[in-house]
Amino acid sequence: MSEGPTFEDLTIDDTLDDVQRICTYVNSTIALQRLVHVRMLGQVCRECGFERTEREILPLLPKLVEDEEFVVRQHLSEQLRYVADVCAADGSIAGYAAIVEGLLPQLKKLVADPQPEVRLAAGESLVSIASHVKQDDLGPRVLTIMLGLAHDDEQEDLRMTAAVLLNELAEKLGQELVVQFVTPEVICLSEDHVFRVRKATALNMDRVCATAGDKTAVKRLVPAFLRLSQDDIWGVRKACAESLVAVSKAVSPELRVDEMVPMFERFASDPSKWVRTAAYQHLGPFLSTIPGESISKELLVHFTGMAYAGTNGGGTTGNVGGGDPGDGDLSLYCAFSFPAVALTLGPDRWPELRALFLALSRDVQRKVRRTLSHSLHEVARILGPKLAEKELLSTFEFFLRDLDEVKVGVIRHVAEFLDALEPATRESYLPVLQEIQNCTSPLNWRFRFLLAEQLTRLTQLFSSAATFSVVAPLATSLLQDPVGNVRDVTCKAIGPLVARLGEADKAWQDDYVLRLFKFANAPGYRDRLTFVKLCKYVARSTSPEFFAKAFLPTLLLRVVDSVSNVRLSVARFLCAVDDVDPPRWVCTHELVVPLLEGLRDDKNEEVRRVYARRRVPDVDVDLGGDGEGGASGGAQGGAAGEAAAVAGGAGGAASGPAENAEGGAAAGAGDSTMNDEAEEGAGAVEADAGTGGGAGADDVDMFSRSRLTPDDLLVVRQLAHGTAMVAIESATVRVTAVLAARAGGASAGVPGVGGAVAAGDIAPAVIVSAAHRQADFGR
């Protein structure tokens, strides 16, 4: 008894590179080593390039083609297409020569391999490699391979392979070669004395018919297909029934009506149950290839009778399914192709399908109802609003009360179904959205996820009032869902929703933004994290002016959040290393740039790592104009000034570039409340005002991260609550007073603020500006 290879025999020499390993181990006496390295061919050729492939890899192929293990030959056949891609990508004469003189001769041997797995893999590679062969070389280099297989009188398997490849490559070969060479071979194969060859030919005639053209198809190919459809062997007739749809698509509409319809009638009354079943399984797709006006009532009766197959119910005609109980699956095929048939017939012939639709929608098999529920929106679109409301609403409501397996279909496409209705009827079904959310089990979160996925479309379906009163609260509720996937997909819809409300009524938009700010200041970090995520999508769906004014200041306050995951999410967004890149202007906004520097010293290592990977856009976006009181110059050659102008809107005026940047930054609007962590630690604002106050543990942690002094933190609190700056009207004057106080030690109306700002250290000023904007938006 011979022993297998030992561990030492299987050891790989790690000192060799990949090409050297292949060259060494494809000659191994151990089949496993040969197989492993043959499977590496495509990837290694891509990595090493054409020159080494031509010099070292291609010479190995002749021996591998003759490998004694068929599994090695099979994987070699699969890898040859990737080797050909490398040769073709080189674009040189040598690369093309490697394909036609090196690879095609090896494939010629592999497609004639005695193992069917090898022939299948080699045939797929031959079809792929043929796309790299010039048109003039297709005949002598590619077509001759298939003709050799077709003329092999001893091996029927090779003739079957030829039938498949002739059909697969017909379009690539072109009409001239197909008419002159391929068509005679197909006709010859259709008359083969072995039924398996005739069966393979019946399954592979559609592309040959389409490429040859109507004239050749009518005169030569269709008659051959008709002969096969009347073959003595039921397996050949069944193959014709299965390929009826493909051949019908390949011929002219007139030929479909004149030849294909009578052919189906013969299949429907065939003595073999298997032929009849195959014909009915493909009846729906076949009807969709025929012009609607050419579908007779008799032919349509065959289709409607499928819903009753195997039930002994009324409506069964002819020999549909043979009345065998196992043919009950025909109703599933009927339901699957129902929308295609309805589209072909059009809404005018809906009365002929109404009874069938009702039978399918009430079918005892849930898989039938499930199939129809997934296509109900398509049927509604076909029928039009008025007819859909009359015929489909009862079924829509029925499916919503059905099993979850059925209900999922209408929930997945509820927005598309409602879109197919009249606007008035559409809004009457608004309570359905709340019902879907509230009536599902908390554990069945996938229904809520499907609903959240459609929120973007739902924001455009209803009137602005309905959007504000129903869709907006629904979105807010889904933002609080206990399942993270539901919250994440809901965030994507908030931007379009906010934009839609702004188009309708600015007051509605402001109201909803204030609702979203509750997430930014929620005691639970999960809600604050959700706010950061939704800001990523709002920034892409709304104007820079709106986002900079309403959302950006509040978002930046999360940079000093007490929870590292929140800070990390903000950092990933602003540093452009997230899966959702911010707009270019966000990364260079004058409020953002200094805060990014603060992330460098964050106590969380992951946040610091994100900062190290930050990407700064090369070109900023021109936000259009200087604004009234915006900046005309400033940092980064004026880019910060433009950003400040957008943020500032109609803020106050200042003279110098730096003052413009600061004044513009302070003149916008923001959230209505300060974050919870900033309100803790140092005691009441009123008690600390004028003294500089003390800093508690949370405050110390906060300003150690954000470079805020205790006095700076007090100013943040004062501005957020509006206790220190109530008497000062201008936003620009307010922040200018704060900055002056920090530089000079005192300022009227801002008691207890002292200290100097180090050169370039403006992050605290930005935090103060952001906090002030919160309070201003709230007022």
From TrEMBL:
Residues 655-670 have a biased composition (Low complexity). One of its GO terms (cellular component) is cytoplasm. HEAT repeats lie at residues 57-90, 103-138, 142-181, 221-259, 260-298, 353-391. InterPro entries: ARM-like (IPR011989), ARM-type_fold (IPR016024), HEAT (IPR000357), HEAT_type_2 (IPR021133), PP2A_Regulatory_Subunit_A (IPR051023). Keywords: Repeat. PROSITE patterns: HEAT_REPEAT. SUPFAM superfamilies: ARM repeat (SSF48371). Residues 648-698 are annotated as: Disordered. Transmembrane segments: none annotated. It comes from the Eukaryota. One of its GO terms (molecular function) is protein phosphatase regulator activity. This is Serine/threonine-protein phosphatase 4 regulatory subunit 1.
